[in-house]
Amino acid sequence: MAIDSDMKAGSGVSRGPISRTYESVGAFCVYPYFERLLRSLRSHRLQFQRHTGEKAIKLQGAGSGRIVGWSRNSQTFGTGTKTFVVQSGFAAANGTTLRIWQTATNKETSYMLGTVTGVSGTTLTMSITTNTGSGSAPLWLIATEFSTRVIHDAGSNTLISITETSAGSPEVSGIQFTSGTGTSHTMLWNYTAGGQPILLHDCWFAQTNNGNDATGSGGTIINNSTHRGVIWNCSVSWSYFALSDSLWMHLPINARTEVWSSPSTMGMADTNGVNNIYVEDCDFHGATAAVDADNNTKIVWRDNIMDHAAFNSHGYETSPFGVRHWEIYDNSFLFANIGSASFNLNQFVFCRGGTGVITNNSFEDINSQAYGDKDEITFGIFILGCWILPPGAYSANDGGFVQYPAPRQFGLGYVTGTGHDGQGNSISNGVYVGDSEPAYVWDNTGFTPVIGIITNNCGSFQTDNPLGYVQAGRDYILGPKPGYQKFTYPHPLRNGGPTPTPTPTVTATFTPTPTPTPTRTPTPTLTPTPTPTPSATATFTPTPTATATFTPTPTATATATATPTATPTATPTATPTPTPHHRHRTPTPTPSATATFTPTPTATATFTPTPTATATATATATATPNPTTTPTATATSTATPTSTPTATATASMPAHGTRSGI
């Protein structure tokens, strides 16, 4: 692992922003303890473990930088005065240093760097002093510079492993995580019975290595095995248009199968905010699958910017259990038709298991010259012909007739606890099959989202039709979910204290329209997967000088345990181009020094400070990072106040390829 900072001191390697301040606590100087700990951990994986009597660990950098804006006006790389049309609500003080680069390219190798000279409405004027790019581009990202960056050079080991603890919430903030030579995950979250939610905020994940999410080889950034946590104010970008295996977050290992035998914890039902994973006020740029909500996951995806990026999930088919429920609301889904250079985004939301709500989002039309007209929301069921567990594909045992429902399929959850699948089973793979708990879609604005039902099942043989298993009016309802109230926003744990009882929100009123009849569309043809842009290393000029304090309490013990991770070969997934649907649509809106870290598999580093007492070591770095503004997405067209989705049947392929054993 390499740690970059803006703190250089003469020659040699900077100690970084979380180690520069000598602060006396009693008769002891803090820095020597932290230096010894850091030196000890440097030759191993940076891993956080809970020890008896300790508090939760906090890892705080001096500032990650953040993507604060985007522009859709064609502009040419170069120096001097440049003007960009940005989103409504953009704000940056004169003199702020900003980096500007083309969406889905490498921000370290082809960019413009300069200072703000003026912001007037949606017009940003820059004085560009550094340029490494050439030509022109129609889509741009705009960001502040980092103060602390961690480069993943940890080989086949996970860079940072965090384990929950009952003593408090482990917390990571203020760091930009960037791909390096590492071939495994950047971060791993581990479940502990009785543990507190992990907190991750004010970070930037800049992904430059393409790969397979099973190993993280440039693919999955966070492999999450717990069912709770809070993430906010993070930027996620890729240096290429990421396909479905280059996820930011994958949640495949959650073993909490009891969620299928208990009522949902959607909205206010999560009374203390610790039963779901919350992702809020983040921004994602350029990915067919930014997240994959998988086995037993309960996730809330709210107030995020989805810039040419999609929310995905898994059902009970290529996964042993499937997603339990999802809440997708108050997000902005952005897409720009830029002709032949448009991104091949299959949909914004893809759900093929469990239940949930999709409400109060703003959508733009996925319709381009290059790839045609796509559905904004896709529902599906793959278990009919793609089931990795005995007795095999569900449809292989139904004699060619629909035997609704399939176990834990889309539109099922837990309400009565007395459900059976269409073949009479109440248990499948040791877990309850579920009973009717339909999804709800209502009050989405902007372009009216079109709902498509995937009719080809992982490309596998099937004797019956998914349209017999996923139907409007039964498995999903075009109207408000009765009694549903959104959980408190922002999440109470963002304030650093215990979670209070949430305050109820007002339930939206909505008059659903009659259920549309799905219609099949022709089978698509495959389109080759675009080649990712190569990664490269660039030289940057960091900004503020950070100061920090590290306050241990006596006898803190930190243990780093490295676990080798095998790296399987990634299997490319083809991204098909569906034949455009002929539908009635709303008109398209116009719309630092470096410390080298060499991990050693299966090693343990232990650091024990001198004083005698049992307590917790908390490393805290404070700094004044570059100004960071939370992006605000506003469509540049007149939005439809309330829209009711149109339902169609789609023969499009899944946005995530079939995987074995997950």
Short summary:
With 662 residues, the protein is mostly beta strands. It is built from one helix and 52 strands. Helices cover 2% and strands 32% of the residues.
Explained architecture:
- The protein starts with a strand and ends in a 12-residue tail after the last strand.
- 56% of the residues are buried.
- The protein has a 20-stranded mixed β-sheet that branches. Strands 5-16-19-22-25-27-29-32-41-44 form a 10-stranded parallel β-sheet, with no helix packed on it.
- The protein is built from 1 helix and 52 strands.
- It has 662 residues and is mainly β.
- The chain is globular and about 70 Å long.
Q: How do the helices and strands line up, and which of them pair or pack?
A:
Elements (H helix, E strand, L loop, with lengths): L1 E4 L18 E2 L2 E2 H13 L3 E3 L9 E3 L6 E5 L3 E2 L3 E6 L11 E6 L9 E9 L2 E9 L4 E2 L2 E5 L3 E5 L7 E4 L7 E3 L2 E4 L7 E4 L8 E3 L2 E4 L14 E3 L4 E4 L2 E8 L6 E3 L25 E4 L2 E11 L4 E5 L2 E9 L11 E5 L2 E3 L14 E3 L3 E5 L2 E2 L3 E2 L3 E2 L3 E3 L32 E2 L13 E2 L2 E2 L2 E2 L2 E4 L1 E3 L3 E5 L21 E2 L47 E3 L19 E6 L5 E4 L13 E3 L26 E4 L9 E6 L17 E4 L2 E5 L12
